[in-house]
TrEMBL record, chain A:
This is PIGU protein. Residues 1-17 form the signal peptide. GO terms for biological process: attachment of GPI anchor to protein; GPI anchor biosynthetic process. The chain crosses the membrane at residues 68-99, 166-187, 193-209, 221-247, 253-278, 285-306, 351-373, 385-407. It comes from Rhinopomastus cyanomelas (Common scimitarbill). The keyword Transmembrane applies. It is a multi-pass membrane protein.
From TrEMBL, chain B:
Residues 1-23 form the signal peptide. PANTHER family: GPI TRANSAMIDASE COMPONENT PIG-T, GPI TRANSAMIDASE COMPONENT PIG-T-RELATED. Keywords: Signal. The keyword Signal applies. Transmembrane segments: none annotated. This is PIGT transamidase. GO terms for biological process: attachment of GPI anchor to protein. The keyword Nucleotide-binding does not apply.
Length: 435, 579
């Protein structure tokens, strides 16, 4: 499998290099869908220029990157294009290896459940075979590297790509079973953008499952492992934050990065829901709604953990999707990360209900974003409502896509345990409803 | 600092002549009123009034209670708030340097206030806020809109013009309100501060309906401490009220460049202010044509004065209102100038330093501020300090700052940049740029336009937002050596045309204010937006809630609801098998 992956990487690098050299690079770097106030490359350069002028980059309201980015690009600013191509390649390779291992785990679990007779007798067509699972890792890498969203993020040099790399490494470490590395990468991801904090739960569930520790509140080994993992995570986070302190000898970066993410003062339009909502919000209710929107991101973790405790990887997928949709400054680079996982659930295709409509919505919205932006900002013939409407449609499309996959997943699980051909007591064919 | 200290350091020997009035215990005070009329190259006339009150009292100690010529409102400000220097200017219009020459005392469009506080003031921001509110009340101007979002603390520009020992720039505050409109209700309280009001002396010419029918109108108040005498052991306080107005003599004179006091101000001078120790009118009669003939003014002046001003030799006709010979022939003085040859095309002297500023780019996302600074001196290069204050909602990117002179990059020798904080303070950019001789320097910096909350837009959001003028301060080298002038002998000339060491004169120029459009949200939609966004969040919540709390069941056969039974009844009537 190494040869097709190498070929894929080569093709991806060629596409990106070609776009870097073309005139589209400047146009893409300015797009608000790709570069948010948190991840724009222009702001990284501005922060480094402020540092050269002797002014703290966090004294203004332009630079909101973590000190680690300053560390990284202080030396690598000349090779920025190369850095971003390498991060994309690393993400793809990490996802490839992770899904390869995950497939082995899935297959082993499936075999165990078949031997234990947990599956109904007529579900042979629902069981995943190694043959059909063989190309999934490559498809995942392909979905990530060749996704136009990822290519645009790379060409715009958005630091979202770095966040994606750290998350991918975290997933790889979790699937490989190394609690320490998983905690370190999770701490790094949380340090970069705060929201991956919610990925603690799926990672914990996966590691517990891998070590055959049952998830029961009364089990001592459960609490022992949870505390161990939590301690590793928190200590890594504290170490990384303290290292950042020593870069500029001040804690200024905490309000500038995390205060900014949580309080959303900058209302630059993006593909998310926050900007127009807070542009039109009465000042009196601003704090209340900021809290509501931020809680909304963290709020699905516990219910999902309870429902999906046997399926932590799917939980991870849904959680990453929820973060990408509801974070305060989303970009299409975040969307590309959870879309890379869609091939892993390709066996759910027969249960998806609206995938055609939803993919049409996403494609049409992606095309309309730059058109309506141009009409509002440059032509002056539209106003902000047009762009806002497309934002709404795009987010609805994403939400329904994720919930469609969730529905399909749960339905397949039901069929696996209850049989594919359901009959009513009187012998006629039964219909399955969610009640 | 050096310039100001030197300018004051040359206060000479003692004031000549006794000053009228003044109680022995309260310190002597004196008033001098002067008017300078300058015909400008393009046919306009500039009139600069200066009313200077000098008071030998220790105002800063707060022990003074008896005010005579010095207005009590301003004196109380100085003593109560610990003000060391105050400069307030309210301006309408823009001084066109290229058409009118170097300005005597330029001020930016709108309201400008800069203040140095005493070192004894502990909370400068609080004092600044109180000061702007009190001045807002005194001058009926909306100076109460001065807050931290438009106040900056420059480090190199705006050095103290009065007596100062040590300049900790944290005691300086500078703010401009470019949107401020100046009208009659600002002129009236300004006139009330004058000792004679507008009833006697030169102030009778200040009629609002003529003053605001002009191309440029600027009224200012300057308070500063000065040395009482050569030994400089005690401090006197100087209050200068200046008013500069430019009349378009062509449009009011039916196409002729001739002007007179009556035509400009609709009043003539009848006497001097009884409280003034000096009351003079200067008319610039320097030759404007190749024959070097002096211009003719009627009536005949009491004397002729020559001075070297802004690097040029100029001749002034002086009318001393206190001299008894002036009002012998007629009760009123109406200075008139008739051009001998009306078609004289006077050469337009290009000012040595002038600047323009404009916004570049298109669309509502980004843009750039471009400043062009011209140095037209044939062989001398000199440095200029450029101060730019940009509001926080135009996010400047200092890594895009480029300074290009004659096609090559020009690196500034000093840059002080303070980035803005959203809704708290503006950008401050101060640079010391060396201008080579006979060159044009282009300074460009890119910005991004922010989307504000809908309540932060002014009532007419599509009018745009103003960016206040940038300030250029320079010591311009003069072609002719200048004589040092004593501030007591000729206060008008020392304040209008300050020179530091005879070879250069200080110039402070302001560029145009800019008008920038920001993207606007739809102001009619707050309820709709809140509902729609919450609907999208609810879609997610609802879908997830269903999937998390419900489980799959095999559907129980239902016997049909009401609709199905009604449909079956209708089908029975039609003879069709039931559902």
């Amino acid at each position: 499998m190494a040869a097709p992956l190498a070929l894929l990487l080569l093709a991806a690098v060629t596409v990106r290099a070609a776009l870097f050299r073309s005139s589209l690079a400047a146009f893409i770097a300015e797009r608000v869908e790709v570069a948010s106030p948190l991840s724009a490359w222009k702001r990284v350069v501005e922060g480094l220029a402020l540092l050269d002028l002797g002014v703290s980059p966090y004294s203004g309201a332009v630079f909101h990157e973590t000190p680690l980015i300053i560390y990284l690009f202080h030396f690598l600013i000349e090779y920025a294009e190369l850095v971003f191509m390498i991060t994309d390649a690393l993400t793809a390779v990490a996802l490839y290896l992770a899904i390869q291992d995950f497939n082995k785990v899935v297959f082993k679990k499936q075999k165990l459940l078949i031997e234990l007779d947990k599956y109904a007798p007529d579900v042979a067509e629902l069981i995943q075979t190694p043959l059909e699972m063989h190309y999934i890792p490559l498809k995942v890498a392909l979905f990530y590297l060749m996704n136009p969203y990822t290519v645009m993020s790379c060409v715009a040099k958005s630091t979202c790509a770095i966040n994606n790399t750290v998350t991918a490494f975290f997933i790889l470490a979790t699937i490989k079973g190394s609690a320490f590395l998983s905690a370190v990468f999770l701490a790094l991801a949380t340090y970069q953008s705060l929201y991956p904090l919610t990925l603690f739960a799926p990672a914990l569930l996966y590691l517990l499952q891998r070590q055959f520790i049952p998830v029961k509140p009364r089990s001592k080994s459960f609490w022992l492992f949870t505390l161990q993992y939590a301690a590793l995570y928190l200590c890594s986070l504290v170490v990384i934050v303290c290292l950042s302190f020593f870069l500029l000898n001040s804690w200024d970066f905490i309000p500038a990065v995390y205060g900014f993410i949580l309080s959303v003062p900058d209302l630059t339009p993006n593909v998310g829901l926050f900007w127009y909502f807070f542009a039109e919000m009465f000042e009196h209710f601003s704090l209340f709604f900021v809290c509501v929107f931020q809680i909304n991101v963290f709020f699905y973790t516990v219910p999902l953990a309870i429902k999906l405790k046997e399926h932590p990887m799917f939980f991870m997928f849904v959680q990453i999707a929820v973060i990408s949709i509801f974070k305060s400054y989303p970009t299409v680079g975040d969307v590309a990360l959870y879309m890379a996982f869609l091939p892993v659930w390709s066996h759910l295709y027969r249960f998806l209900r609206n995938v055609f409509v939803l993919s049409c919505i996403l494609v049409v919205c992606s095309v309309l974003f730059p058109v309506l932006w141009h009409l509002w900002i440059y032509a002056g013939s539209a106003n902000s409502n047009f762009y806002y409407a497309i934002t709404l449609a795009f987010n609805v499309g994403q939400i329904l896509l994720v919930s469609d996959y969730f529905y399909a997943f749960l339905r397949r699980e039901y069929y696996l345990t209850h049989g594919l051909h359901l009959t009513r007591p009187d012998g006629t064919e039964a219909v399955l409803v969610l009640k | 600092g050096a310039m100001a200290a030197a300018g004051l350091g040359l206060v000479l020997l003692l004031m000549a002549g006794p000053s009228p009035g003044g109680g022995a215990g309260c310190g002597r005070d004196s008033l001098r009123e002067e008017l300078l009329l300058t015909p400008l190259p393009a046919g306009d006339v500039a009139a600069t009034f200066q009313f200077r009150t000098r008071w030998d009292a220790e105002l800063q100690r707060g022990t003074v209670s008896h005010y005579r010529l010095f207005p009590k409102a301003l004196g109380r400000l100085v003593s109560a708030l610990g003000v060391k220097e105050l400069h307030l200017a309210l301006t309408q219009g823009f001084w066109r340097t290229q058409m009118w020459g170097q300005p005597p005392l330029q001020a930016p469009a709108g309201a400008e206030l800069w203040v140095w506080f005493q070192p004894t003031v502990t909370d400068v921001d609080k004092a600044w806020k109180e000061l702007s509110n009190i001045l807002s009340g005194i001058f009926c101007a909306s100076l109460n809109f001065i807050d931290s979002t438009n106040t900056v603390t420059p480090t190199a520009s705006f050095k103290p013009l009065g007596l100062a020992n040590g300049t900790d720039h944290h005691l300086l505050r500078y703010a401009v309100l470019p949107r401020e409109v100046v009208c009659t209700e600002n002129l009236t309280p300004w006139k009330k501060l004058l000792p004679c009001g507008s009833k006697a002396g030169l102030a009778v010419l200040l009629k609002a309906e003529r003053l605001f029918h002009s191309s440029y109108h600027s009224q200012a108040v300057h308070i500063r401490p000065i040395c009482r005498d050569a030994s400089c052991l005690a401090v006197s306080w100087e209050l200068r009220q200046t008013l500069t107005v430019v009349f378009d003599s062509f449009s009011s004179g039916q196409g002729k460049k001739d002007w007179s006091l009556f035509r400009m101000f609709s009043r003539t001078l009848t006497d001097a202010c009884p409280l003034a120790s000096e009351s003079k009118v200067y008319v610039d009669i320097s030759p404007k044509n190749k024959e070097k003939e002096l211009l003719e003014v009627t009536p005949a002046p009491t004397s002729v004065h020559e001075a070297i001003v802004q690097g040029e030799k100029r001749t002034y006709a002086v009318y001393d209102l206190l001299s008894p010979s002036l009002f012998n022939t007629s009760r009123s003085l109406n200075v008139q100038l008739k051009w001998a040859r009306p078609q004289d095309s006077s050469e337009m002297p290009t000012p040595i330093l002038h600047a323009q500023r404009y916004v570049g780019g298109y669309g509502l996302q980004t843009g750039q501020i471009c400043t062009l600074i011209h140095n037209t001196h044939p062989y001398r290069a000199f440095p200029v300090i450029l101060l730019e204050t940009v509001p926080w909602y135009l996010r400047l990117y200092v890594h895009t700052l480029t300074i290009i002179t004659k096609g090559k990059e020009n690196k500034p020798s000093y840059i002080h940049y303070q980035p803005a904080q959203d809704r708290r303070r503006p950008h401050l950019l101060e640079m010391l740029i060396q201008l080579p001789a006979n060159s044009i320097t282009k300074v460009t910096i890119q910005f991004e336009r922010a989307l504000l909350k809908w309540t932060e837009y002014p009532p007419d959001p599509n009018h745009g937002f103003y960016v206040s003028s940038s300030v250029l301060s320079a010591l311009v080298p003069s072609v002719i050596a200048m004589k040092d002038v004593d501030v007591e002998q000729s206060p008008l000339f020392t304040s209008l045309f300050p020179s530091s060491d005879g070879s250069s004169y200080f110039v402070r120029l302001y560029t145009e204010p800019l008008l920038v459009n920001l993207p606007t949200p739809d102001f009619s939609m707050p309820y709709n937006v809140i509902c729609l966004t919450c609907t999208v969040v609810a879609v997610c919540y609802g879908s997830f809630y269903n999937l998390l709390t419900r489980t799959f069941h095999v559907e129980e056969p239902s016997r049909g609801g009401l609709a199905k039974r009604l449909a079956n009844i209708i089908r029975k009537f039609r003879g069709v098998p039931p559902l």
